[in-house]
What we know:
Elements: H1 23-40, H2 47-50, H3 52-65, H4 72-95, H5 105-112, H6 115-130, H7 134-146, H8 174-197, H9 204-207, H10 224-258, H11 280-287, H12 293-307, H13 315-339, H14 349-374, H15 388-405, H16 407-414, H17 430-437
Helix pairs in contact: 1-3, 1-4, 1-7, 3-4, 3-13, 4-12, 4-13, 5-6, 8-10, 10-15, 12-13, 13-14, 14-16
Amino acid sequence: MSTLPPFPFRFSPTLSSLSLPPPPVLLTFQLLTSATIIGFTPPSSWLRPAALPLLSACAACIVRNAPAYMRPRWGSLLGGFSVALLLQYVDLGVISRWGFGDGGKVAAKEREGDDDDDADVRKASRNRNRNSSVAARFAFGWHALWSFRHINSPHSVPSIPPFSTASPAYVPPRRRFVAQQCAVACTCYILLDLLAARPPPANAAQIFNPALVPFFARLGSVTGAEIKLRALSIAGFAFTFYCVIQGFQSLAAAVAVGLGVSGVEEWRPAFGRLADAWRLKNVWGKFWHQLLRRPLTVPASALVHDVLCLPRHTVPAGALKILISFAISGAMHTAAGVASGMPAHELGVFRFFCTQAFGVLFEQSVISVFRSVRGVAEKEKEREKPPVWMRAVGFVWVAGFMAWSGPAWLYPQAARAPRQGATSFLPFSVVGMVSKLG
């Protein structure tokens, strides 16, 4: 059984890292600077785009310097979050141009070309600005920066699951919610602890060799055991990240609601129903968390419509937005991999996410042709509930696609021999403590 280091941070500086502040300090600076600019500057201020090079350099330094200060898993989380925070700033501060008191309405009205409403919004915003306090402005920027899903607002991302599918308007009582989230956070911690307690395979470099990532090119040499390993390893990989994300979400929800910082209604579930994951589109758009949906899709939409000037609601524009959104996600997750200490050229995560985009487009094409052959009316296509046999075929398709494409992300990381405790996200091991007592 592997043991965990006593603390997630370590310090093994190189000559280059000595000139850079520690990543937690850089992340704090990035958070404070982003929140201050969004809260205190007008939506059209030149400071907003001018701050992008500084914030980008901050995120790059975090990614570069994280391996010198902390274990790989923590470096990956910190580096990935810094890039996600940068994308959030690009959305709110530069593209959507949220300002104190208007919440992005100015930029939205400008895109719609409604000058009268735009003037009204600007006037109301100026009136609020005169009566605003420093604390209120900073609180607005801070809250906007952390509200990735913007729940219960006009900018709420789609497909956020309700607390109850039977009663979508239901909101649990505060005490019950806090108790449930504490229990979920503890459960996720124990599950991650149990996963980390298992020693990695002695032949990890062989069974997870990146040369085994291609499947169809070497179809004649693929064995049943290898297919089983691909499926199980990808399922375990996804389950691990599910526990990490759900654990953080539940811990933050319990603390925020318990202290009265936010209401229960602002903490709807992070993940949707597994029963909806019979399509790749549903996997990424309904089942998996939507925390990064706006930071990924808003820049993609701006590139497609404002830079390339493609008309909205057209097939080419929709396809290109999907490709760019997944490519941005791949770049963000690549940065997280670099922050864990892996060279960028050894990572296959960008390939994985680009493959997901092509899979979604292929899937949409097949379903569109199938529905056209069946003669389903255009307005009824998305409302139509597919029969059981179609969903069963869909689950097989999704499982097969993930088993085929997933090793591009997983294998390069799994093949590397980790140092002791490096595979864990946790600061200490409860399982290890209990085993010592026994």
